[in-house]
Target: UDP-N-acetylglucosamine 1-carboxyvinyltransferase
Amino acid sequence: MDKIIIKGGRKLSGNVRVEGAKNAVLPVLAAALLASEGKNVIRDVPNLSDVNTISAVLKSLNAKVEADADNNEVTIDSEDTLFSEAQFEYVRKMRASILVMGPLLARNGFARVALPGGCAIGSRPIDQHLKGFEAMGAEITFGHGFVEAKAENGLKGAKIYLDFPSVGATENIMTAAALAKGTTIIENAAKEPEIVNLANFINEMGGKVVGAGTDSIRIEGVSKLYGTTHHIIPDRIETGTFMVAAAITGGDIIIENAVPEHNAALISKMGEMGVNIVEVDEGVRVYAEYPLKSVDLKTMPHPGFPTDMQSQMMALMLTATGTGVITETVFENRFMHVEEFRRMNGNVKIEGRSVVLEGPSKLQGAEVAATDLRAAAALILAGLAAEGVTRVTELSHLDRGYVNFHQKLEALGAEIERVSSEVKEGKKFTLSN
Ligand SMILES: CC(=O)N[C@H]1[C@@H](OP(=O)(O)OP(=O)(O)OC[C@H]2O[C@@H](n3ccc(=O)[nH]c3=O)[C@H](O)[C@@H]2O)O[C@H](CO)[C@@H](O)[C@@H]1O
Ligand SMILES: C=C(OP(=O)(O)O)C(=O)O
Model:
């Protein structure tokens, strides 16, 4: 079992470059299945375990997938007839596997996908995805742990109002509608930058999608889509995580490839805390000096504050002065990391869907376990600011969404290493509590 070991107290400085966005590449690789002629070449693909998982799903569906990890490129050839079933072994590993449902339904008129079930951050139902498919004429059935959608006479365009601007439902409905007969309108659609990225990709394949990035998306179905070359947008959550890394250490770093407009809510909140974030030619510069002051924040669908930055901001707020309240409105159970922060002497308690922080906490290094992807990053961030040594385990979560996270932090001056259980600790530097 790997662990990351951090000796806190170093200010970070220098430049770091963010990768292509995990949450943009997963729907794009699934949507590549829509092309029945020509190959799709996807560029700026991050080398993540989730990308390996979605690639395995595509292969299991009879697509040919070639990864060139050195050049961050994946090529997908989905010209042959596709199989219609996505197995539990993939969906269990990664919920985003459900995103093949829209493209399969569009291509084959049938899709059978293992039900994803809940995960560490909440129950995460898919009713809004299915409501969209049903409105387009699919019949939905459940059995033996699978959900099936069948549209024997093909999908028809429809007007769909989402109860909540679900990212996944918006993506799945967009891809299903791309090859449907007629026009589909998604109202109360998700507005995340990753939705715009997916709409651009569908259009590059020859589709007709307008309105992505607003709450009303219009998709005119076309009869065929063609392989193309597409670039993935930079990862706004990796960007945000490095913004917090600079701030929590009182450091000064430049994040290359960052797109500030994608992180407006985060930049505004960090600004309220006293962190300086300025646009520079390469991306953004982030610098901070203690003491930071605590704020209140509430996670919301984009352009609100992103739930995927909630745990990292909690780490930062632990080091800030005053009382802060974080309210999670997107997922019902995304506070598993709170107990781990308490093990690090964090003064934080859960009150319903909020946590209350009384700061600053004098963070102490401890052994902690990552409970989900962003919690993994947040615990490492807390370790950068803690007194003594922090050991973070359960790193499979981290590897889903961050490329070379500890190497990037080390290059910025952090005292950090990753060891596997077979290797003795303290290879690079002397670690003691
Ligand atoms: C691969 C990917 O892009 N993952 C992101 C995506 O997840 P994902 O697409 O799963 O997130 P959604 O926006 O769909 O989910 C948000 C909320 O809506 C609920 N819901 C969703 C669909 C549905 O049919 N019914 C329903 O009730 C979910 O349980 C959750 O409480 O957006 C989330 C919200 O920004 C991010 O945290 C995830 O990192
Ligand atoms: C929750 C996340 O991802 P997923 O939806 O893939 O679980 C995330 O990226 O923080």
